[in-house]
Specification:
single chain, 427 residues, five-stranded mixed sheet, four-stranded antiparallel sheet, 11 strands
């Protein structure tokens, strides 16, 4: 833009110089044919708001030569022959006079400006003096260039922003879909739109999602079928164990069979969590927690409820109830009996903390306990119940809601489960 404007102004300036040179040459030839009295009268007549003409006995000394007017001087000398010609540049305001004659310049702009003064000696020795404003150029008025470049820059930035946003919007949708893939494999495929490369990436993502969904559901169906079919031989073994005459041996058989049945039921419950897709709805979390507290008290658990959450949250109520049941059961079973459940608002969602008064968990085990069937050394015995799936199920439900579940050892002692629910996960 700067080069273009500079070239344009240079051409306009050159054209203006040629016009002024031709106009001056015509005026000089005309006044040279007149007597001195008529020259002053004609000079006053041809003076315009853009051109001041005067007659003087000698050339002016004020002003300076300007190399940029070399073409103008050459054109003027070419038309006037061997006459003595001088071209100067003077800095003056429009109210100032030339050769003692008040100016009649246009005073709309009272700022100091550059004037071109052309002095030509006439045949009788007097001098014709022409004064006109110099056209503004890029160098004279840099604010013009800055304004043009600013408008151009803002236009390019706006168009670039709109174009880039249009091109990258499919990538943003793809990134959001990839982030939500682990929470919902049944989400509809992404529309294949955008540039060719983006459409290819979206198509590959949709294919990957379909393959993952088929693989996980097939594996889940197989494991569910195996766990379900194990119930029949377990039941037969239990009936046959009742026929044993040795009471001690029968007790051991029944205990082992009960443990196998408990593990099978827990496995089925764990696998059902991958298949069930409960609809999201607005849930009164406080009412759900109060119901959980009442049921826990009926079962003999000491569960205290703290905090308050007045606004509803978008959740899957049955899944959340199951998650909290597992957390409270674990806290009661391994945390010394007393459990505190606190709730607080966080954005559109909520943060629920389940804290016990137990010995806590070693820091290196805080993540391992979320693995299926993983049990701490102190809980290896099945006497206390549990199969090592409770925390795995709880974390799966938290991630299904787009949230998180983590364990921490507070400085005051015990163990705290922190369940974060954003409350914006769609069905």
């Amino acid at each position: 833009a700067a080069i273009s404007l500079s070239e344009r102004d240079r051409e306009l300036f050159h054209f203006s110089d040629a016009q002024w040179a031709q106009r001056m040459a015509q005026a000089v030839r005309f006044m040279d044919s007149l007597n001195p009295t008529e020259r002053s009268r004609i000079a006053a007549i041809i003076t315009t708001p853009r051109l001041l003409v005067s007659i003087a006995q000698g050339p002016l000394t004020a002003g300076k030569l300007d190399p940029q007017l070399a073409d103008y001087l050459a054109a003027l000398k070419e038309q006037l022959g061997r006459r003595d010609v001088r071209v100067l540049v003077a800095e003056r305001t429009p109210q100032e006079s030339v050769a003692g004659i008040p100016t009649k310049m246009d005073t709309t702009d009272i700022r100091q400006s550059a004037h071109v003064i052309t002095e030509v000696q006439l045949s009788d020795g007097s001098w014709a003096i022409f004064d006109h404003p110099r056209p503004w150029t890029v160098i004279d008025r840099p604010e013009r260039l800055l304004l043009s470049l600013t408008v151009l820059l803002l236009s390019v930035l706006l168009l670039s922003f709109l174009a880039v946003r249009r091109l990258t919007r499919p990538l943003s949708l793809l990134a959001n879909a990839a982030d939500a893939l682990g929470r919902d494999l049944d989400r509809p495929p992404l529309p294949e739109q955008g540039p060719l490369e983006v459409r290819a990436a979206i198509a590959a993502f949709n294919t990957m999602q379909a393959r993952l969904r088929d693989y996980i559901y097939e594996r889940t169906r197989i494991l569910t079928a195996v766990s379900h079919d194990l119930r029949t031989p377990i039941t037969r073994l239990r009936l046959r164990a009742e026929l044993l005459g040795d009471e001690a041996l029968k007790t051991k058989f029944v205990h082992d069979l009960q443990e196998m049945e408990s593990m099978t039921s827990a496995t089925l419950a764990f696998l059902r969590g991958f298949e069930e897709r409960e609809a999201v709805q607005s849930v009164d979390v406080m009412a759900l927690l109060e119901s959980l507290q009442t049921d826990s008290l009926d079962m003999g658990y000491d569960v205290q409820l703290q905090g308050r959450l007045d606004k509803p949250v978008l959740l899957r109520p049955r899944a959340l109830r199951r998650c909290l049941d597992n957390l409270v059961t674990n806290a009661v079973r391994y945390g010394g009996g007393m459990v505190t459940v606190s709730v607080e608002a966080k954005g559109r969602g909520a943060v629920i903390r389940v804290r016990d008064r137990g010995p806590g968990i070693p820091p290196e085990e805080l993540e391992k306990v979320f693995e299926p069937y993983y049990r701490l050394e102190g809980a290896r015995s099945r006497e206390g119940g549990g199969t090592g799936l409770g925390l795995s199920i709880a974390r799966n439900i938290a991630e299904l809601h787009g949230g998180s579940l983590l364990l921490r050892n507070p400085p005051e002692g015990g163990l705290e489960a922190v369940l974060t629910l954003p409350g914006t996960q769609e069905s």
